[in-house]
Design brief:
- A hairpin with a 2-residue loop joins strand 17 and strand 18.
- The radius of gyration is 17 Å and the shape is globular.
- The longest helix has 6 residues.
- The strands form four sheets. A six-stranded parallel β-sheet has the order 1-4-7-10-13-16, with no helix packed on it. Strands 2-5-8-11-14 form a five-stranded parallel β-sheet, with no helix packed on it. The protein has a five-stranded parallel β-sheet with strand order 3-6-9-12-15, with no helix packed on it.
- The C terminus is likely disordered.
- It has about 200 residues and is an all-beta fold.
- It is built from one helix and 18 strands.
Length: about 200
């Protein structure tokens, strides 16, 4: 199941100082109300929660329904803050292809994601679906701030992964490009200046 699921339209909510461990599909997740559609909120704060060892088995049927192994996911929020949370050891099962996302945000107008620790997001040396420490899916949004977070695919010092997973610390952009954003290239022009190219760097 999910540690804390939001399945309603709410005006304002604060989710703080919870410890959630080894839930089957996710930690704190907005889904949809029983009447259909998607959950939403005007103001939402998620702060100082510990989410540990979530989604120990990727074969859990609810992971298939959500399409992701999730630490935190919010959607359709006018103003949101996600601050000071710890997501550690998410989806470490070496089987299954489900993407892993530490913090996922979709269709939110204004979001601040700050001071979180996202560590061990998916296993090394295993190829699975496109994954991220933080993923902000747009449009629409007016403002997004991602600052002062610690994001590590692994806490093994000096360890290099030997797999083909599309994994990134932070992704901001359309859902349609989440799977192929690595086609973009950064080309250094001069000291401290870079060009982002959609083609091949020459």
């Amino acid at each position: 199941g999910i540690g804390l699921e939001i399945r309603a339209t709410v005006g304002s909510a604060m989710i703080k100082q919870n410890s959630i461990e080894k839930t089957g599909a996710g930690g704190i997740v907005m889904t949809g109300p029983a009447t259909g559609g998607a959950a939403s909120a005007q103001h939402l704060s998620i702060a100082n929660n510990q989410l540990l060892g979530l989604v120990p088995l990727i074969s859990n049927p609810m992971v298939g329904l959500l399409q992701y192994a999730l630490g935190i996911r919010i959607q359709n929020v006018a103003a949101a803050e996600i601050e000071g949370n710890v997501v550690r050891d998410l989806g470490m099962d070496a089987t299954g292809q489900a993407p892993r996302v530490g913090i996922g945000v979709g269709a939110c107008k204004s979001v601040r994601i700050s001071g979180n620790q996202l560590i061990n997001i998916g296993p090394l040396d295993v190829t699975y679906g496109p994954s991220a420490g933080v993923a902000v899916i747009a449009p629409p949004f007016d403002r997004v701030e991602v600052s002062n977070n610690v994001i590590r695919r692994t806490d093994q010092v000096g360890r290099v992964s030997n797999d083909a997973t599309f994994w990134r610390a932070v992704y901001i952009g359309p859902i349609g490009q989440f799977t192929d954003s690595f086609k973009m290239k950064f080309v250094q022009l001069t000291e401290g200046k870079f060009l982002l190219s959609l083609g091949t760097a020459i």
